[in-house]
Design goal:
Number of domains: 2
Helix content: under 10%
Largest sheet: 7 strands, antiparallel
Distance between the termini: 16 Å
CATH topology of the largest domain: Methylamine Dehydrogenase, Chain H
Shape: globular
Mean pLDDT: 92
Structural class: mainly beta
Radius of gyration: 25 Å
CATH architecture of the largest domain: 7 Propeller
Low-confidence stretches: none
């Protein structure tokens, strides 16, 4: 017999069937990420921070200029003026409940809209920008003294304000008109370029030297791949990512300086099957030095890994260039739900990483182990199923030891015979806002490139022990081929 590493794959690959995914091809990874040494970590759980008591979506915004956190939920707005300060409701606005808000600010005020007029936040009051300012605003920027917003329902139109001397009440329109596709959203890139996302194009403008027509087109960054989901484009400081339609199919695109690249091949098939994608929403998320582009699909309504998903959250791990699934574990029904969050915010001066809930009106902070539990023995479970069977084996429970116990866990022996074997590795704890936080790795069918029956003597686990976290460095199998 020989000791062989278990090729459990890298990331989520939903464009392959479980019966065809073989050595080294993973099927789905839930709530895990991979470091530079290819060790597998669980993503952090969540702890409740505060509650808007609206029972619906919540979004957070932070202004470094004013050291102010803004909370939006159910069409209502609150401000928090210090890390532990009380909430103050900001009255006078008319935001559409449930719509992702958009923010910008100048040196004097924060501005907000949510499929609405633009409102100026000042103290405990919101004041509508008047004049001919646009309606139904879902995208705001502040650049070069101007406020920019998606304009009236005319293909390609972008509206921009006069300067603050006139209280931003006079607005004009520019239209790139390379192609008359409807404007979806705006992004400010490299602090100087305005990316105007249409349904079929991305046109890029900047401020030129013509006072009567201040916005000029940068044709070098023009792209013929627009976005079909206006809330999906996100800029991370280096690249723009968004959901698009490429060659009559749905795809996730990474765009750098006008050059688009498709990054969604491992998840293309389910995206094609989703009931809707135009309502998908993207946001950035970061923790422990890792960065993710997260796509939340509220009306996926599709089957993934033998389970129906009304909603699902897919995450692109930017450092490792791999897809994983962020999810919430429903312990009552033993199934995966969409991730708790629909937004993320890092408030660096307050050292808070915040997740806005998709359903409850609550804001969570990303959980950090601040205390060490010396009494609880952490475990994980390993089970498998053989030769394309739907029936899983009884799980083997592997101890991670109590805090301070660093001895390698014992091998799991007498592991049976098989032609090919699919593995599932599960870890859970109680850090998901008081509920079970679960991580899972589902591999393809592994046969170690030996096409005869094999006998598995034992599994050996190189995992981190003695702490309150779960890290897999490797799993090995003592396996030998049987005679025909």
């Amino acid at each position: 017999m020989a000791l062989k590493p278990l090729p459990i794959g890298i990331g989520t690959n939903l464009d392959i069937d479980q019966t065809t995914a073989n050595d080294g091809a993973s099927v789905a990874w839930y709530n895990v990420w991979v470091d530079r040494a290819n060790a597998i970590h669980t993503i952090p759980g969540l702890a409740l921070l505060d509650d808007a008591q609206t029972g619906t979506r919540v979004f957070n915004y932070y202004s470094k200029t004013f050291d102010t956190r803004i909370i939006v939920s159910g069409g209502r707005v609150w401000a928090q003026y210090s890390k532990r300060g009380a909430w103050v409701e900001v009255l006078g606005g008319n935001l559409v409940a449930g719509v992702r808000p958009t923010f910008c600010e100048n040196s004097e005020n924060i501005f907000v809209a949510a499929n609405s007029k633009i409102f100026k936040v000042s103290g405990t009051a919101m004041t509508e920008i008047g004049g001919n300012s646009p309606d139904n605003v879902t995208s705001l920027l502040f650049y070069g003294g101007f406020i920019l917003a998606n304009g009236p329902e005319i293909a390609g139109d972008v509206t921009y304000s006069d300067d603050k001397t006139n209280n931003y009440e006079l607005w004009e329109v520019y239209n790139n008109e390379s192609k008359p596709d409807k404007l979806q959203t705006l992004l400010l890139v490299d602090s100087q370029f305005i990316y105007n996302f249409g349904t079929e194009t991305v046109e890029v403008t900047y401020t030129g030297g013509n006072p009567s027509n201040p916005f000029e087109l940068n044709r070098g960054r023009l792209s013929s791949i627009g976005t079909i989901a206006k809330y999906s484009p996100v800029y991370d400081g280096e690249k723009v990512r968004y959901l698009s339609e490429v060659g009559q199919r749905r795809a996730v695109v990474e765009n750098i300086q006008g050059v688009p690249t498709i990054i969604s091949f491992p998840i293309d098939v389910p995206i094609e099957q989703f009931e809707r994608v135009d309502d998908a929403e993207g946001f950035l998320m970061a923790f422990k030095g890792q960065n993710f582009y997260v796509l939340y699909f509220p009306t996926a309504n599709t089957v993934i890994n033998e389970q129906f998903h009304e909603q699902i959250t897919l995450a692109w791990h930017i450092q490792k260039k791999m897809w994983v699934i962020f999810a919430q574990w429903d312990a009552i029904h033993s199934q995966w739900l969409a991730y708790r969050g629909n937004s993320f915010l890092f408030i660096e001066p307050w050292n808070l990483r915040l997740i806005g809930s998709a359903t409850t009106g609550q804001t969570y902070k990303i959980y950090d182990d601040e205390t060490v539990d010396y009494d609880t023995e952490k475990t994980f479970q390993h089970r498998w199923r053989d030769d394309n069977s739907k029936q899983w084996s009884n799980p083997r429970t592997v101890s991670l030891g109590k805090a301070g116990e660093y001895i390698r866990p014992p091998d799991q022996t007498q592991c049976g015979r098989y032609l090919n074997r699919q593995h599932e590795i599960n870890y859970w704890d109680m850090t998901d806002s008081g509920e079970i936080h679960r991580a899972c790795i589902l591999t393809g069918n592994i046969n170690h490139r030996i096409d005869t029956h094999k006998m598995s003597a034992f599994y050996r686990y190189n995992v981190k022990r003695g702490t309150n976290e779960f890290i897999i460095n490797s799993i090995s199998e003592e396996v030998g081929a049987l005679k025909r």
